[in-house]
Every structure is written in structure tokens, then in C-alpha cells.
From TrEMBL:
Pfam families per the UniProt record, alphabetical: GAF, GGDEF
Source species taxonomy: Bacteria, Pseudomonadati, Pseudomonadota, Betaproteobacteria, Burkholderiales
Gene3D superfamilies the record matches: 3.30.450.40, 3.30.70.270
Signal peptide boundaries: none
SUPFAM superfamilies assigned to the protein according to its UniProt record, in alphabetical order: GAF domain-like (SSF55781), Nucleotide cyclase (SSF55073)
Gene Ontology molecular functions: catalytic activity
Protein name as catalogued: Diguanylate cyclase
Length: 326
């Protein structure tokens, strides 16, 4: 058996799965309808929408299988997401990648597999729409075209979910996406008695960038800042653009010293960007933070309000200092 390797975009792919907040959710008729159609059209016992997570594949929709997940190492879909095309395994007994796979040699005794990768609007292959049989079979070009059409329906559902949760300009979570993801992360911190820190950022003098250099330049600056946040914070932190030039990040399991280090990294990378980019203006931000200790749980709203107030204070101090100097 050959376990599937990770694709090159693995981190971004998993971050997208997190933003969509689709893993471990309830069955959804929009996806179940598609797998029912696939099962009927191809006359197969099993049809799945499988999402490939860190170490498992999890089924958003499953027809003909009682389990909701299997280890990623054993998954056919882990192989299918390595390419844009359909992965076709007409007879698993004759394929060295799968011949001694426990899902082939034991239940559900998979013999035939056809899986079409399903992508997020940002282009990451999140999983597959796949059909399976317990006997070998063919899958002609017409079948393949039909499977691609059905996979496209799955992608449209992803697109609708994505639009509701993601800021189109920067690809970060939007306010709604943030509230929902951060709410879950905060509950996890509270259950495990981990500290958490919320950072509230607002760019300084951003209106001036738009006014002097145009809206397109303003968009460039927002995207550049979003990229820096992505680079300087951990993949497990929840980062969002919640308004015009406002960004927030929830750092989980993070105490003050780590938060300070993250902000130092951000400042130094922003300095480097300003020097490198030479756009005629200096991109700068004010930031406020609010901490939840392991002992005292706080609601997300409270953390947001505290961090916003701290940011505002810093902004006032900075503009007073600039006025005094000038
Ligand atoms: N380019 C661009 N500009 C935007 C977008 N959304 C909001 N803005 C602009 O962002 C600016 C935000 O305004 P403020 O926060 O008051 O401006 P500021 O100059 O940063 O003010 P301070 O925060 O006090 O430093 C406004 O000019 C908005 O028009 C966007 O998606 N793209």
C-alpha cells in the first residue's frame, strides 16, 4: 500500500477547510442530494463527498457507508487530491497503491474507485466527490464527464459557503466567519483552561492612501497587510478583516510574551515591506489587545470591545505624538 503524500498547498488547503467550517458538521441535504444522484446515475453502492483533513478523510455526505471518516493514510481520496483530474482505479487488486489497503482487503472491500477533486473558490483541492464499487468496473469518458458535472455542483456549494465567511479582497475570514470560528476556538480554550489573546488592528492614515494614490492602491495595501498577518501569526490563529481597514486576530493558548513576539515580528516585517515596496507612503497600524487568562473565561464580544478600546487609545496617543512633533 502507498500512503498519499501531502500536496504542495497543504497548509493553505487546510486553512481553507477551517475557514469554511465544514468539518464535523451535521449532514446537509445540499450535499446529500448530490451523492444520492451519483449513486443512482452510476449504479454504485457507495458515493461520498470526502474532505481530506490533516490525518483523516471526513465524509460531509456518505451514501452506502456507515462510517464518517477513515485515516488519511488509507484514503483513495488523499491520492485523488494530488491532481486536477479524476482518479480512476478500475480494479484495486491490480493497483499497487491500493491492493493491500485494509479498506480493500477488509470491509468495505473496495474494488472500484472514481474520485473527482472538488476545489474551493481559492483553488485548493479540499476533497473529492467519489463513487465506489465492490467489484471491478469501467468508467468511460461520458461517465467521467458526468462525475465532473456533479463535482462542480459540490464546488458551487463550497462557493456559497465561502462567500458567506470570507473577505473577497484579502481571502481572510470576514466578520461573520471570524465570529463563528473565534467563538469555537474560545470555547475550546475555556474548556481546556488555555489563555487566549485578541488583537484588534486598524491601519493608520489609510484614508489618505486612498485619497492620494487611488482605491486600487488602497486595495493593494489591505492585501499586503493581510499577507503579513498570515505570515506572522500561526496557522492555528484565527485572522480576519472585519471592516474597511480593521483586522482582528484571536491567538489561542497565547500569553503576553508570545503575543508581544508576534507583534514584534509583524512590525519588523512591515518595516521591511515599506522599505522594499517604496509606494510613496508608509503603511502603519495601531493595535490593541485583550487577554483572557486560563482562570477567567471572557466572551468574544467582551474581548473585542476591550481590544478595540485599547487600539483606539493607542491611535489617539500616536496621533497626538505626531501632532506634537509636527
Ligand atoms: N481601497 C479600499 N479602501 C477601503 C475599503 N474599505 C474601506 N476603505 C476605506 O478605508 C478608509 C478607512 O477610514 P478610516 O479608518 O477613517 O481612515 P484612517 O485614515 O485610517 O483613519 P485613522 O484610523 O484615524 O488613522 C476609508 O477611506 C474607506 O473608504 C476597501 O475595500 N478598499
Amino acid at each position: 500500500m502507498i500512503a498519499p503524500p501531502f500536496p504542495a498547498d497543504e497548509d493553505a488547503r487546510r486553512a481553507t477547510l477551517r475557514i469554511l467550517q465544514i468539518l464535523d458538521t451535521e449532514p446537509d441535504e445540499r450535499f446529500d442530494r448530490i451523492t444520492r444522484m451519483a449513486k443512482r446515475i452510476f449504479q454504485v453502492p457507495i458515493a461520498l463527498v470526502s474532505l481530506v483533513d490533516a490525518d483523516r478523510q471526513w465524509f460531509k455526505s456518505a451514501q452506502g457507508l456507515d462510517i464518517r471518516e477513515t485515516p488519511r493514510d488509507l484514503s483513495f481520496c488523499g491520492h485523488a487530491i494530488l491532481s486536477d483530474d479524476i482518479l480512476l482505479v478500475p480494479d484495486s487488486h491490480r493497483d499497487p497503491r491500493f491492493a493491500d489497503n485494509p479498506l480493500v482487503t477488509g470491509p468495505p472491500q473496495l474494488r472500484f474507485y472514481a474520485g473527482c477533486p472538488v476545489r474551493s473558490p481559492s483553488g485548493h483541492r479540499l476533497g473529492t466527490l467519489c463513487v465506489m464499487d465492490r467489484q471491478p468496473r469501467g468508467f468511460d469518458p461520458d461517465d467521467q464527464a458526468t462525475l465532473r458535472d456533479l463535482a462542480y455542483l459540490v464546488e458551487q456549494q463550497f462557493a456559497a459557503m465561502y462567500a458567506a465567511m470570507v473577505d473577497e479582497l484579502t481571502g481572510l475570514a470576514n466578520r461573520r466567519g471570524f465570529e463563528s470560528q473565534a467563538g469555537q476556538v474560545l470555547s475550546l480554550c475555556q474548556r481546556n483552561r488555555w489563555p487566549a489573546t485578541l488583537l484588534f488592528f486598524d491601519l493608520d492614515g489609510f484614508k489618505g492612501v486612498n485619497d492620494r494614490y487611488g482605491h486600487a492602491e488602497g486595495d493593494w495595501a489591505l492585501k499586503a497587510f493581510a499577507d503579513l498577518l498570515r505570515q506572522c501569526l500561526r496557522a492555528s490563529d484565527v485572522v480576519a478583516r472585519t471592516g474597511g481597514d480593521e483586522f482582528v486576530a484571536l491567538l489561542s493558548g497565547t500569553a503576553t510574551a508570545e503575543k508581544d513576539r508576534a507583534l514584534e515580528r509583524l512590525r519588523s516585517q512591515l518595516n521591511a515591506l515599506n522599505l522594499r515596496a517604496q509606494r510613496g507612503y508608509t503603511l502603519a497600524f495601531s493595535v490593541g489587545s485583550a487577554a483572557m487568562s486560563a482562570e477567567e473565561p471572557l466572551a468574544l464580544d467582551t474581548l473585542m470591545a476591550q481590544a478595540d478600546a485599547a487600539m483606539y487609545e493607542q491611535k489617539q496617543r500616536r496621533s497626538e505624538a505626531i501632532r506634537a512633533a509636527g
